[in-house]
Fold these 2 entries.
Entry 1:
Amino acid sequence: MTRIAFFGHDAADAAVRRRVRGFVEDGIDVTGFMMRRRDPGSLDWENVDLGETRDGAFVQRIRQVFAGARVAASNRDKLAACDVIYARNLDMLACAFLSKRHAKLATPVIYESLDVHRLLTRKDLVGAGMRWLERALLKRSVGLVVSSPGFIRNHFERRYPGDFRAFLVENRLAPNTDYGHRACERKSAPEPPVRPLRLGWVGNLRCQRSLDLLCQLADRFPDTLEIRLHGLPARTEIAEFEPVINARANMTYFGRYRAPEDLAGIYDALDVVWAGDFMEAGYNSVWLLPNRIYEGGYYCTPSIAPAGTETAAWLEGHKCGFILDEPLADTLPALLAELIVDRSPIAQRAAALARLPEETFIQPKGFLADIVRQSLNQGAAA
């Protein structure tokens, strides 16, 4: 059995848990070496706690990389027992290589770039220094895992041509899990507008412009539109969250949710999903593919995305969503006004989602194990 040391940025993060679940389903033994940003609760894997970090506290996170590396190295027996290190995000990649150095190990490392941090896109000395670090560590890694082809095309191929071997692992649902009823038959049938249209924003709620757009929609359609928010708001990005929602009777914030346990209930109650992001406009926000297009797609709930993004290209390629040009302050209300009185475009796209193969939304069993195997073979041949 292959054994992985998973260096994760937050043991409580739903995406980290999904990746661990995916490894385990593929027959890989996982030992976590993870930091935390809140209480992770009970964990389904053996974990070495590398300490606490805070959202937006970049200097503190750098200090914790060095402290965490010492903690990981002090657990040398657990680290040495692993065949490969899997490091999620650049800070954890640095922590992994420091841990290897302190423990005097030669364990191969796979780098997963969850997104391209804004510091890596800066044009000043800080940006140059971050890219120098990423390139140095990337060249020493046996594989690069990204969740969107936009990251490869716009960042890695542009910045580090020839320095990596990339694997695409989209943010699909983990295999061998009961995700409940898809409700595709009901959603594929046009529904008369006897109740308000339900628009959802689900996942990492980190974009001030998205919240502003949703508030404007709530004000414009107070009686015919419901807006439902599920997830955790990024307090460093959104200055005021609960008060602006509580001020609108047709907006509801449901808080954190459990995946996969709560997904069916969330998406079954929605008609459409907002899939735009502007936190790092022009860069990461344009290049990423968010979890919600796979989660919503599985439950036949179409997404809405801004034109010119990787998300829009994915929706267009599958003919299963709504794509809007700027200015969104005009085009988004215009679309919602149409859907409020005529649900048939939603039903058409829900039917398109229902026709797509299940592996469009759920990762095939063995997929992650094959990537790990290919990375290790590549490293052995180098």
Entry 2:
Amino acid sequence: MEKDMRELSKLITEIEGDPVRARDILKGMKLRDIPVIGVTGVAGVGKSTLVDAMIKVLREMGKKVAVVAVDPSSPFSGGAFLGDRIRMKRHFTDEGVFIRSMASRGALGGLNDSIFDVVDLFRGFDFDVVIVETVGAGQTEVDIAYVATTVLLVLAPGGGDEVQMMKAGIMEIADIFVVNKADLPGTDSLVLSLRAMLEISPKKEWVPPIVKTVASSGEGVTDLIKEIERHEEHLRSSGEIVSRRRRNVKKHVEHILRNEIVRILGGHESVDADELLMKTVDRLCKEVKDRWTGK
């Protein structure tokens, strides 16, 4: 297992350094269909502490967990600050847990472009669950919805007009609302605001539940894991997992195309970007689709 984790770390480094290399690494790799849990929310709501508590519960269930935590980029090196890994240090010696920090590199969606390939790489290893924690969340930072099968939006009391500020954007991608730090004043008010928002939202087959947690003590985290499992079951029984996968593949291909066009056009300004797009889109769509079918 230790050897596998060293190999995994090496492959992630290669993917981050050269996105084109990811296609060679993932080609022919059999990808397992496992839950990918996205954890997003504004800074200060306790996302990393929550992820740490989730890992503990998942390991008690016997599940092997891979975590990629997107940290702010250093303005000097462009690398991650590694804050999330420090907060999850109690799992460092657990061979059933793999934790990797990635720099956001200024990505507006809260995720590094390499995240799509890294998550696919995790599917090729012996993990049962993947957790992706974003660097933060604003109204436009919704890329996590194109990576995760279940998106947790983490909020905390004391944010004032937080729900009002966020509902026009990222609120719509939440599959589960997590009110963390639920031992603080203002928790009930926040829960009532969320319920009121859900009442006036367009009716959907899946109504996002609201789960209260105190991640620092682990309170409510087991209930959260049960809700995640319930949502994963809903995706499969309703068939929505297929449409989500197609949507995610489309977004993934868009990222690949953008990176490839930027790479090819560098120093070749006379190249017609539209023509290049038409020539590569079918090939790349097939390439990403083949990862799921193992061809």
